[in-house]
Amino acid sequence: MKDVELNEVDQEKQLMNRETQKNGCVKVTVPENAEVKYTGLSKDELMKITNTAGWVQTRRALLGLFLLGWVGMLAGAIVIIVQAPRCKPIPEMNWWNEGPLYQISDVNAFSEKGLKGVEEKLDYLSHMNVKGLILGPIHTVEGNQLDTLDLVSVKSAVGTENDLKSLLDQAHKKGIPMVLNLTPSYDNTAVWFNNVTAVAEKIKDACTHWLKKGFGGIFLPDLRNIMTTKSWQSTQALFNKTEETKQVALMGSFTNLSADDVSLMLNRSGVDLLLTELLDPPETSVEKKLYPSHLQTSLGWTLGSLAFRSQAAPVRLYQMLLFTLPGTPVFSAGDEVGLKAGEKPQIMWDLENPAEEKNATAKTLQEERIAVRNFFKTLSDLRGKERSLLHGEYVSLYSSATSLAFLRLWDQSSRFLTAINWGNASVIMNLSNSDLPAQAQVHLTTDAVNLAVDSMVSLEKLKLEPKQAVLFSYPYAG
C-alpha cells in the first residue's frame, strides 16, 4: 500500500481527523496495483482505422507533398548545373610540360664525382621541383674524327655503364625523367663532322639503344642538318606515341633561328619539344613566336648565355620571364643561383657552408645567391600548381624596346600578370584588357622595397623602376 495526496478534493466533503489531516489536504490510502495501464490498439483495430477515408486521404496528401518537394529539388539542381559556367577541358600534357627542365652539359663540372655526383644531387633537383633532366653529352668522341664517334658508350671520364644505370634507376624512383644529349661532336664547332648523313645513321641506332635503357628522351642539336637526311623519318618513328613510347620525347634545337621561323620549323621537324634561346632583348622574339595556332607544349625557352650578355639585368628578371611565358622553361646548371660565365658549379654546393664573417663581400654574395635560388624555387613551385601559368592563355598587354607585360589566364583559375622592365629608366605601362581589375596583388617581385609582396597595386598607368620585374595575381571574377 502507498499514500497518495489529494490536493484538489473538496475539503468540505472530506472527514478530517488527526490521522488524515495534512496542511489542509486529505491523505488517503490506495492500493499499489490500482494503476491504470494503456495497452494501445490491436493490429486488427489499427487496420480498420487505416483503411478509413480520412487516413487514406492524409497519406495521399503527404505522398504528394514529398514528390513535389523531390521534383522541386531535382529541377533546382538541374537549373544550377545548366547555368553554371562550363570548365574548360584540360589540354593534354606530357611530363616535359609540367615544369622546368634542368640541363647538365658538363657532368664533371657539375660534380667532381661525375655520374655518381649527379645521382647524389637528385634530391636537390627534386627539391627545386625540376621535372626533367637533360644530361650530357657523355659519349666518346674525338674532335674532327668521325671514326671515333661512339654514341652508345659512356666515356670513362664521367663514369661507367653501371654508374649510368644506377643514376637512371634512382632518377626514375624520384620521378625525374632523364633525356640524353646526343650532340655528335660537342668539343668542336663542326657538330655534325660535315657529314650529317653518316652521323644520322648512328643517331638512329643510338636512340634505339638508350631508349631501351630507360631514358625518357633524346636531345639533338641544330635540327636543320639532320632533318634533310633519309634517316630522319625512321628516327622520328622511334618516338611515335604508342603504349610503349608515349612517355619518351624527341627534343631538339635550332641555332640562329629567326623568330618568324619558329612555328614553321616546329611543324617540319616534328619534335616533341623545340628548345630555343630567349633573344636579347626578349620582346623581339616573344611577340612573334607565340602565334595563336602555336602549341606552347612544343616550345622550350632557354637562357643560353643571355644572363651573361646582360649582366646589368638581374638574373631573377629572366627567371620570372621564363617561368611565366607559355612553353617549357629550360635552365642550365647554375642558372638557379645566377652563376656567371667562368664560375664553377661547385659554388652552388658551397652555399650550404656559412661564409666567413670577416669577409663581408663573400657573405653578401652568398646571401644574394641564396636569395636568387629561393626566388627560383618559388617560381618553380608556382608554375607546377597554377593552371594559368602551366597551360593558360597568353594575352599581350604592353610591349616596348625595354619592357614587356602580358597576362596568363585559364578558365576560372587565378590570373597572373607579368610586368618586366629591363631598361635603365623607369617606364609607365598603360594596361588595358576586359579581364583586368582596377587593382591586383603583388605575388612576387624583384624589388620588394618599392613593391612589397601581398600589397595591392593599381594597374592603371603601372610604373616600373629600372631592372624591375613584378608578378601580379588576382582571382577570377566571372
From TrEMBL:
Give the originating organism: Carassius auratus (Goldfish)
Protein's UniProt keywords contain Transmembrane helix: yes
Q: Which residues cross the membrane?
A: 61-82
Q: Which GO terms describe its cellular component?
A: apical plasma membrane; basolateral plasma membrane
Q: Identify one Pfam family in the record.
A: SLC3A2_N
Question: What Gene Ontology terms describe what this protein does at the molecular function level?
Answer: aromatic amino acid transmembrane transporter activity; L-alanine transmembrane transporter activity; L-leucine transmembrane transporter activity
Alphabetized PANTHER family for the sequence: 4F2 CELL-SURFACE ANTIGEN HEAVY CHAIN, SOLUTE CARRIER FAMILY 3 (AMINO ACID TRANSPORTER HEAVY CHAIN), MEMBER 2A-RELATED
- Keyword list, A-Z: Membrane, Transmembrane, Transmembrane helix
Transmembrane helix: is it a keyword of this entry? yes
Q: Which parts of the sequence belong to the Solute carrier family 3 member 2 N-terminal domain?
A: 32-102
Write the protein's name: 4F2 cell-surface antigen heavy chain-like
- Give the superkingdom in one word: Eukaryota
Biological process (GO), any one: L-alanine import across plasma membrane
Task: Domain (Glycosyl hydrolase family 13 catalytic): give its ranges.
Answer: 115-232
